[in-house]
Amino acid sequence: MEGARPFAGTIERLREVGLRPTRQRLALARLLFDGADRHVTAEMLHSEALTAGIKVSLATIYNTLHQFTRAGILRQVVVDPTRAYFDTNTDEHHHFFVEASGTLEDIPGERVRVTDIPAPPEGTEITRVDVIVRLKPRG
Amino acid sequence: MEGARPFAGTIERLREVGLRPTRQRLALARLLFDGADRHVTAEMLHSEALTAGIKVSLATIYNTLHQFTRAGILRQVVVDPTRAYFDTNTDEHHHFFVEASGTLEDIPGERVRVTDIPAPPEGTEITRVDVIVRLKPRG
DNA sequence: GTGTTTGCAAAGTGTTTGCAATTTA
DNA sequence: TAAATTGCAAACACTTTGCAAACAC
User: Fold this and answer.
1) Residue B109 above 90 pLDDT?
2) Which of B79, B122, B130, B138 has the highest number of chain A CBs within 10 A, making it the mutation to test binding with A?
3) Mean pLDDT calculated for residue range B41-65
4) If we measure between CA atoms, which residue out of B126, B130, B91, B44 comes closest to residue A77?
5) DSSP label of B15
6) Is residue A49 scored above 70 in pLDDT?
7) 3-state SS of B69-137?
8) Which of chain D's bases lie under 7 Å from a protein CB?
9) Which residues contact A94 (CB under 8 A, 6 or more apart)?
10) Which chain B residue is nearest to residue A129, measuring alpha carbons?
11) Judging by beta carbons within 10 Å of its beta carbon (0-12, 13-18, 19+), is residue B14 exposed, middle or buried?
C-alpha cells in the first residue's frame, strides 16, 4: 500500500493558517505546493485543476488564491497590468519577467542587493521592496 | 501681451516623435508636461482634461497615452494589477508606492543601486530593471 | 483631397460579488 | 445544527476595437 496519509501535511498546514481543509482547498494546495516553486495566474490554476479532474469554479480559484495570500502561504507578484500572478515562494526574492511571453521566474533572494534606498515619505514605512528585471527575447 | 507662441515647444516635440499635433494631443501634452513630473492613470487624465475644459473621449486618452509611450515621452509603471499608471519621467529611476492610497512617487534614479543581478536566462536580454518600494501608512 | 485622428458605443478581459445550495465540524 | 464554503451567473472596472464623421496637412 502506498503512503497512508498522503495529505496529512497539507491538511495540517491549512489548519495552521486558519483555513478549513475543504476538498477544493486541499486539491489546489497540492497542485501549488507539491513540487517546485511556481508562478500561477487564476486562469492557469483553474485549467490545471480541471485537467487534473478537480471540479472547482473559477470563483473559488480566486477566493482560494486570495485566502492563501492573506494566510501568507502565497504571495502576489505585480508585473503585468492585465494579469495577477501568484508565487508559491514567499521568501524574500525578486523576479525575471519576459513581457513577450508572460514568463515569470524567480531570482534567488540573496543574489540581488538593493542599496541606498532613501527614507520613505513622512508617515509611511516600507513593507516590501520588489525588483523586476524585465527581459526580451534576444533578437 | 503674454507669450506669443505658448505651445510652440509642445508642437515641435510632438512632430519630432512623429505625432500630428492635434488639438487633443496638444492639450494632453500640456497637461502632462507643463510643470513637474507626474504619474497619471487614464481616468485621472480624462477627468483633469474635462475639468480644464478640454473635450476628449476616454478612448482618445488611452490612445494618446499609448502613442506617447511608444514615442518614448511617457513610460508605463506597473505597480497595481488594476490600474495602469503613466510616468512623465522617462529617465532611469524607481518608485515608492503606497498601496493603501494608490500614491506613486519617484525615487531619483541615482540614489537606488541594484547590484548582483545574475545573468538573464539563455536567449534573453535585460530591457529594464524596476524597483518598487511598497509602503504603508505608519500605524 | 488624402490619410490621420477622433469619439462613440459595443465588445473584451480579468476579477469580484450576491445568494442559494452544499459541506465541514 | 450552526457556521463556513462553494458555484453559478450577474455585475464590475478597466481597456480595446470598429467604424463613420471630423480634422490636419
Assistant:
1) no
2) B130
3) 95
4) B130
5) H
6) yes
7) HHHCCCEEEEEECCEEEEECCCCCCEEEEECCCCEEEEECCCCCEEECCCCCCCCEEEEEEEEEEEEEE
8) 4-9, 13-18, 23-25
9) A106, A107, A109, A112, A130, A131, A132, A133
10) B133
11) buried
User: If you average pLDDT over residues B69-81, what whole number do you get?
Assistant: 95
User: Can you give the pLDDT at residue B111?
Assistant: 85
Whole-model pTM: value is 0.89
Q: Which residue is nearest to nucleotide C25 (CA to C1')?
A: A20
CA distance B9 to B14: 9
More confident residue, A30 or B108: A30
Decide: B103 and B97 in contact? Cβ < 8 Å: yes
pLDDT digits (tens, 9 = 90+) for A51-110: 999 999 999 999 999 999 999 999 999 999 889 999 999 999 999 999 888 899 999 767
Contacts of A105 in chain B (CB under 8 A): 121
Those residues of chain B whose CB sits closer than 8 Å to some CB in chain A are 76, 78-84, 96, 98-99, 105, 107-108, 111-118, 120-121, 123-138
Decide if B37 contacts B87 (C-beta within 8 A): yes
> Helices in B36-78 by DSSP H: which ranges?
42-51, 58-71
Query: How far is A41 from A53, CA to CA, in rounded Å?
Result: 18
Burial class (CB in 10 A: 0-12, 13-18, 19+), A102: middle
Q: Do A78 and B83 touch (CB under 8 A)?
A: no
Helix H or strand E segment including A16: helix A8-16
User: Which strand (E) or helix (H) includes residue A78?
Assistant: strand A75-80
pLDDT of the residue at A8: 63
Q: In the prediction, which pLDDT does B1 show?
A: 41
